[in-house]
Each structure stands twice: as structure tokens, then as C-alpha cells.
Design brief:
The chain has about 350 residues and is α+β, with helices and mostly antiparallel strands. The chain contains 11 helices and 11 strands. The strands form 3 sheets. Strands 1-6-7-11-10-9-8 form a 7-stranded mixed β-sheet.
């Protein structure tokens, strides 16, 4: 049929999708050529209608098949052109990305953790939003205790909050941003039984007047060792090993009596820093106070657990990470750590 040949030739030569749509409307649309031919069947006799109808249906199928085929071809052609225009030449050299680095606090913290891991300690972490019980009460610092004046605290608004306890139980009461990492000592003791050795790194918060050596946010690393027959000699040995690892075989350790409510006796420890030829006051330490063990066992008993801290002893220590970082890298102002200045942070790129 001539009509079919003309239509198929036009479809095959259609240069784009809009042209193809126009051809479909011309032949198969509501007012298209084929549609009008179908309407004209009504004026034919029955025999002529059957014969003409079969021919028109065959023509319709041929047109629909040709339209679909050409549509696929045009879509593939458009996709190929798009890929050629938008594609990247993978043979070109890559773009060198900016190489980041670890924060100096992270560097020192990781070094300390590695030192204590070599001594058999496990590193654990605790929540920064803490309950009054774990931050103060369980550490022998009850409300109105004068020792609470040592920490100016960020409290959350409201008297009643809740957060998960050591074993997932709900702990209700006042909440605060922890003032030291010591709450994790209590949490760990509730959930575990001695003997054990742990260090607790983390960020702490105190409402302080900031200057070159004081900041409202800083980092601590605390250690806790509990077992049978643990003495002050074990504590001194741990701090001595820390000094040797940090400052070499010529370093020395000094302990001076000091008061902390959660240890008895308590001490301030300093390390002889050979490079600077001076004593570096690093942190506080002491033997875990019996009342801390008592508070842990009472809490365990409330959870239906047997007491685990009768007849054991332990020591704890804590030190400031920023102080070590300032001496290690010659940083004169603690506020540099949290200023977010790239020029400052870029100095530590590549240090692992």
C-alpha cells in the first residue's frame, strides 16, 4: 500500500522525538489518516468492510511497530550524545585532594591510650551528659559537700530528667555536663566485677573564666585499677611507666599529698621533664575511697546484683590532655585548640 510505504519512510527518517510524535499524531491520532479511514468503513458493504478493516489493522500494527522502533533508536542516540558530552576522560591525571590531619588533642589522647594498652589497660568511654548521682553522689561528693565548690557546673534545666544507667536501667534526677571522667569509673564498676584495669578518655565541662591555661571545655584521661592487694606502690609504678613512655629513661615521678573526696589517700603527681629541666604537674591520683566501693555495691544491690567490691582495693588517677599537648607542641594558649583556625591545625597534618 502506498500510504504504508510513505508513512514507514517518514518514520524511519524522523530526525528527533518531536518529529516522531508529530508523525504518530498524523497517522494514528484522533484525526489522523488511519483514524479517518477507520471511520469510513461504515459506508462500505459488509464484505468490503471486512477486507478493508483487515488491511487497516495490519497497517496500524506496522505503524505502531515502526514508531516504537524509531523511538528506541532516537532515545539511544540521545543517551550516547549525552554520555559523550558529559563523560570524563579517565586517562587524565586525577585531582589531588586536600590531605587532612588529626587534631593535636586526638594525637596526644591516642598516644596515652596506646601507652596504657601496652600495660594491659582497656580504654572505655562514657556519656558527656551525666546524672548528678554518678558525677557527684557515688564519688563521695554529696549535695552541700564543700568539695562541690571545686567544680562550677553546667546543669541542664529542670529537676527531673532520665538517662540510661550502666546496665540500661533508667536513672532519674538532675543532669549536667560531666565535670570529670570519673563518673565512668562508677558506671564500669557497677557493670563489671574485679579485677580490671581501664582508662577513660573524654571531654569534660566546667564553667570557668577562660584564659591562656583555662577553658570551659577540655579533655581528661582517667585510669582505674581494682583487684585484690592493689596498693599505692602499684599506682606509683603505673605513673612511672607513663613518665618513661612520654619522656624517656631520665624522667622521674613525684607525689605530694592532696585532698580529693573520691580517693584516700590522695596525691598530686608530677613528672620530671628532662627537656624542660623542670617538674610538670600532671594530675591527681590516689587509692579508691571505700565509700565509692560502698556506693557501687549499694547500686548493684538495688539492681538485684550481688556485691562485688568487698575486700578489694584499687587506685585511680586523672590527667589533663591539653596540658601535655601544649608542652609537646609548644602551644602557648589553650584556646588555640578550640578556635577552629586552619593555619593552626594544618601544622599537625601528617603527624600520626
Amino acid at each position: 500500500m502506498r500510504e504504508l510505504e510513505e508513512a514507514l519512510a517518514a518514520i524511519e527518517k524522523a530526525p528527533d522525538i518531536p518529529t516522531l510524535r508529530a508523525l504518530k499524531a498524523r497517522y494514528l491520532g484522533k484525526k489522523g489518516v488511519l483514524t479517518e479511514e477507520m471511520k469510513a468503513l461504515a459506508h462500505l458493504s459488509l464484505e468490503e468492510r471486512k477486507e478493508r478493516g483487515r488491511a487497516l489493522n495490519a497497517l496500524k500494527e506496522a505503524l505502531e511497530e515502526a514508531l516504537a522502533k524509531r523511538a528506541r533508536e532516537l532515545e539511544e542516540e540521545e543517551l550516547r550524545k549525552a554520555l559523550e558530552e558529559e563523560g570524563q576522560d579517565v586517562s587524565l591525571p586525577g585531582v589531588r585532594l586536600f590531605a587532612g590531619g588529626l587534631h593535636p588533642i586526638t594525637l596526644i589522647e591516642r598516644e596515652l591510650i596506646q601507652i596504657f594498652r601496652a600495660l594491659g589497660y582497656q580504654a572505655v568511654e562514657g556519656p558527656e551528659v551525666e546524672s548528678e548521682f554518678f558525677n557527684f553522689d557515688a564519688l563521695n561528693i554529696p549535695e552541700h559537700h564543700p568539695a562541690r565548690d571545686m567544680w562550677d557546673t553546667f546543669w541542664l534545666e529542670g529537676e527531673e530528667h532520665s538517662l540510661p544507667g550502666p546496665l540500661g536501667e533508667e536513672v532519674r534526677g538532675r543532669l549536667l555536663l560531666r565535670t570529670h571522667t570519673s563518673p565512668m569509673q562508677v558506671r564500669y564498676m557497677v557493670a563489671h566485677t574485679p579485677p580490671f584495669r581501664i582508662v577513660v578518655p573524654g571531654r569534660v565541662f566546667r564553667f570557668e573564666q577562660t584564659d591562656a591555661t583555662h577553658e570551659a571545655v577540655f579533655h581528661q584521661l582517667e585510669g582505674l585499677v581494682v583487684g585484690e592487694g592493689i596498693t599505692m606502690a602499684h599506682l606509683k609504678g603505673a605513673i612511672y611507666e607513663l613518665a618513661q613512655a612520654l619522656y624517656g629513661p631520665h624522667s622521674r615521678v613525684r607525689f605530694q599529698p592532696v585532698y580529693f573526696p573520691f580517693v584516700e589517700p590522695g596525691a598530686q603527681f608530677a613528672i620530671w621533664w628532662p627537656e624542660g629541666r623542670k617538674w610538670l604537674e600532671l594530675g591527681g591520683a590516689g587509692m579508691v575511697h571505700p565509700k565509692v566501693f560502698q556506693a557501687v555495691d549499694e547500686y548493684r544491690r538495688a539492681l538485684g546484683l550481688p556485691p562485688a567490691y568487698r575486700g578489694v582495693t584499687g587506685f585511680a588517677f586523672g590527667l589533663g590532655v591539653e596540658r601535655l599537648a601544649m608542652l609537646r607542641y609548644g602551644i602557648p594558649d589553650i584556646r588555640y585548640f578550640f578556635g577552629g583556625r586552619l593555619k593552626f591545625l594544618e601544622q599537625f597534618r601528617g603527624i600520626l
